[in-house]
């Protein structure tokens, strides 16, 4: 966790720092906090027990929350919090849906135990495959996180699958990804960026190329299926799948596609009756799928597009520099000829009727299009494919990202920032519309 360290007691936090205050929480209540946009927030658990989105707070250690973060400290039995008095907002709420959420966890826990006890039986040894769906800002990511942290606390290693290309809680926006959760998720630092399984879509909305999105979801599901077939422990722990808030039209089709592709067994619907009833209807033939409606927490904060853009930018900075500037990315120069950059899909579309019989339309969404290196690539974030050959690019996951910082046309040189020094794992790079401007 992002501990402030033992020296940062109230005395050290005094000086020019904001005044401190204590907040007493009754049992089953939560302290909802929005950190100031310009300054971080220091707080600690003084007495009792409390958790932040499913992860227990350490007693007495100071925690530092970055600007703009929104979160809640929930207590089952009562707690006292000591904190700086400089938040954007903070208030205590005693009405929360936490009991219903922890009841879901208890049901999942039972299913994991049954799966573990059925090792060897192909079907019964599969633990719950939970998918969390709902409109934008309904608390999907938060609920996913709580379910994962509670499971990890019990010693399971559930797989977290993030299908939300808008924000990226496992890796950068524009990607879908999966990673095992081995410990309750750190409330400040989030999920460690350790070798997740990542596929690059390249854009933060699926409408740009829905076919590609579907193909990548399928690739990811297939790899996980293979991993589960040889790993009884993660098979029994199951998965928690987080989705996008896009639930109408194409968004709804993509939800059904994800439920089907990952063979979800539990669909948790947050905060929308209509979506819940549509899904119940669509899935009524599938006897092993439970569709469960859950109340949205009154604490969930709506975030506008500007906030989301800032959060995406912040996420990219964090990838290269670390949450507290603790990483040292490396700038490298390559010849144009050393790199092969592609984008997927696109090209001018000819009407199908105008094409010779059997010909592919030019705008084939899965077409691999070589990209000419020019100044337009400046500030783009490119994904480094694990592909060894060009024909593997579409089905390959990615090793990481680089950020283009300079293009020298006369000398045919490209300067980029990478998380570490040394040669890139592959010369095949993927481009989408993901950009970053260092602020
Ligand atoms: N009980 C709570 N108290 C305070 N803040 C909360 C609470 N629950 C969630 N939040 C905050 O509200 C914001 C939105 O929640 P969350 O990200 O879970 O919603 P979402 O449905 O995943 O949104 P999106 O559709 O954008 O993916 C987040 O910043 C989250 O930390
Ligand atoms: Mg979310």
TrEMBL record:
Pfam families reported in the protein's UniProt record: Clp1 (PF06807), CLP1_N (PF16573), CLP1_P (PF16575)
Domain Clp1 P-loop positions: 134-322
Keywords, comma-separated and alphabetical: ATP-binding, mRNA processing, Nucleotide-binding, Nucleus
A GO molecular function held by the record: ATP binding
GO cellular component: mRNA cleavage factor complex
InterPro entries: Clp1, Clp1/Grc3, Clp1_C, Clp1_C_sf, Clp1_N, Clp1_N_sf, CLP1_P, P-loop_NTPase
Residues passing through the membrane, by range: none
Protein name, per record: Protein CLP1 homolog
